[in-house]
Amino acid sequence: MAETRDNVRYLPSHEWARLEADGTVTVGISDHAQDALGDVVFVELPEVGRAVQAGEEVAVVESVKAASDIYAPVAGTILVCNDVLDAAPETVNEAPFEGGWFFKLQPDDDNALNELLTPEDYRALCATDDH
């Protein structure tokens, strides 16, 4: 079973979003998603400074199996991208919740993460995906 973390919220499209102490939101893909994709070979990251809407396509992850869009979990402004992924996209597979994050954004609404799936809801979603 794929790992889920209790300190993050999830999207049905398998992104995770973690509220940081400074009020920013870090975004990546779940362990379930990286496992389903297989070996990640390329990540296209968004432009820093870009304003995004919740649910907007903002990045792309490509694996040996497929390419998938990455969606913004909440509306906000992209602050920084994980440049490590340019040279080492496999970091997404190795550490999806640590070094394999995609980008950080400043949310427009501090409470927007409350609209996303809880870890329990996400586990239930993944359980139905596995059957």
Summarize the structure.
The chain has helices spanning 31-37, 84-87, 91-94, 119-129; strands at 9-10, 15-19, 25-29, 40-44, 51-52, 57-63, 67-71, 76-81, 103-107. It is α+β, with helices and mostly antiparallel strands and 131 residues long. The radius of gyration is 14 Å and the shape is globular.
Keywords:
six-stranded antiparallel β-sheet; 9 strands; globular; 32% strand; 131 residues; three-stranded antiparallel β-sheet; alpha+beta; OB fold (Dihydrolipoamide Acetyltransferase, E2P); 4 helices
Write structural notes for this entry.
The chain is of the alpha+beta class. The protein has one domain (9-109): OB fold (Dihydrolipoamide Acetyltransferase, E2P). 20% of the residues lie in helices and 32% in strands. The protein has four helices and nine strands. It has helices at 31-37, 84-87, 91-94, 119-129; strands at 9-10, 15-19, 25-29, 40-44, 51-52, 57-63, 67-71, 76-81, 103-107. A six-stranded antiparallel β-sheet has the order 1-2-3-9-8-5. A three-stranded antiparallel β-sheet has the order 4-6-7. The radius of gyration is 14 Å and the shape is globular. The model has no long low-confidence stretch (mean pLDDT 95).
- The average pLDDT value, as a whole number, equals 95
Nearest-angstrom radius of gyration?
14 Å
Helix and strand element order: EEEHEEEEEHHEH
Strand order of the biggest β-sheet: 1-2-3-9-8-5
Write the layout of secondary structure elements.
Blueprint: E1 9-10, E2 15-19, E3 25-29, H1 31-37, E4 40-44, E5 51-52, E6 57-63, E7 67-71, E8 76-81, H2 84-87, H3 91-94, E9 103-107, H4 119-129
Antiparallel strand pairs: 1-2, 2-3, 3-9, 4-6, 5-8, 6-7, 8-9
